[in-house]
Amino acid sequence: MDVGVRDRDGSVRVEVRGLLAAYAPGRRAQLIGSGYAPRTVSEQMSLMAHLSDWLEQCGLPAGALTPPVAAQFLRERRERGLRPMSARSLRPLLGYLHGLQVVPDPAGRYPVTPVEQLVEDYRDYLIGERGLFPGTVRQYADYALVFLTDLADHGHAVQSLESGQVTDFVVRYCAGRSAGASKCMVVALRSLLRFLHVTGRVSMSLSEAVPSVPGWSPGPLPRGLERMQVAGLLDSCDRECARGRRDYAILLLLTRLGLRVAEVAGLTLDDVDWQTGTLVVHGKGARVEQMPLPEDVGQALADYVRNGRPRSPSRHLFLGVHAPWSGMAPGAVSAVVARAGNRAGFGRFGAHRLRHTVACDLLRAGASLTEVAQLLRHRDERSTAVYAKVDPGALGGLARSWPGAWV
Questions:
Q1: Per residue in 269-320, pLDDT tens?
Q2: Based on the domain organization, do 234 and 355 belong to the same domain?
Q3: From CA 249, how far away is CA 264, in angstroms rounded?
Q4: How far apart are CA 279 and CA 141, in angstroms?
């Protein structure tokens, strides 16, 4: 049974004994600082006390709390008739202890096969050397696992990989799949093959052996929003509440500066220079660039920080509206756009469409493709060239008249 005394706010201050006792005060302070209600704080501290007792009874050190051991604790807890809890419920506590270097990473991966170890090395390369966003790393690693598993299933070794094996896999994988899904695999596979070459696992680069996916390369016209639709999105935010102030500031960043959702999610308080009116953006490939902060965007950010942002030790600029008050993930930023689209009556659409809107508006206002590329921070001019199609009238002036001799 948990031992504790009742605080002034009505919560029970649970006493944690045993191996984890020394870390209990810090954990309690973290929970309170993250905005948890008193009752939730008591429940979390009770869980910590139970876990500490269980470790002592089993004769295990705190460092033995790997995910399998944590799963055993939860299973025995259920068998004793206590309230069932999922591994996800235990993860915040394990994450706190991992931050103190007391237990292993609860979200860590523990490769058990050569293929899994190779994928893990590839993941580290994408993060450390390429500086890719977490979502892209996750996607590329998943495709790498599919290819390497298929390679092993067919009795082939990475060290003796040949171009014919690569081509054969792509043909088999793409059969019956859409062009979009096939292109994702092809792009990820080329990245993996470059990694295998630069790390010395294969003697020559086989990225050129990956066949291209047939399709009309220019793709569809970029679809932006009309000005009235953008205004409708912004007006749909209730700026009298914290969530509305936050969402309004996020939408302004997306519609005025054309930021990516991962870039918005990655902003910190230190990235805003209020004196010079600039914003530091951490983009693709670990690129760090400074952008001017328009007055209306700066005012929206200031209003959110002063009147809407929860008090939290987190340095992330945008926080969730419910405890724990931690930084928003890219998916949460995309959800802000989706909710605004529904409120404004436009239906759900992707946040990247707002990036298209910025580019299309600039071109219609007379900006050059070079200027658009600078604002959107494109590394490859082909990424910007797609916007040359948004004004068919302007393109018509570039077309030559039909030769009279051929009429």
A1: 999 999 999 999 998 777 889 999 999 999 999 999 999 999 888 899 999 9
A2: yes
A3: 10
A4: 31
Measured CA to CA, the distance from residue 106 to residue 95 in angstroms comes to 6
Which candidate, 290, 283, 292, 291, places its Cα nearest to that of 379? Answer: 283
Counting the structural domains of the chain, the total is: 3
What domain range includes position 40? 3-99
- Strand boundaries in 23-179, DSSP class E: none
> What is the distance between the terminal CA atoms of the chain, rounded to a whole angstrom?
96
Active site residues: 260, 284, 352, 355, 378, 387
Average pLDDT, the chain: 85
28, amino acid identity: R
Q: 305: which 2 tokens?
A: 């920080």
For residue 61, give the DSSP letter.
-
Task: Tell me the whole-structure pTM to 2 decimals.
Answer: 0.71
Q: Which parts of the chain register pLDDT below 70?
A: 1-12, 107-112, 215-222, 381-382, 385-407
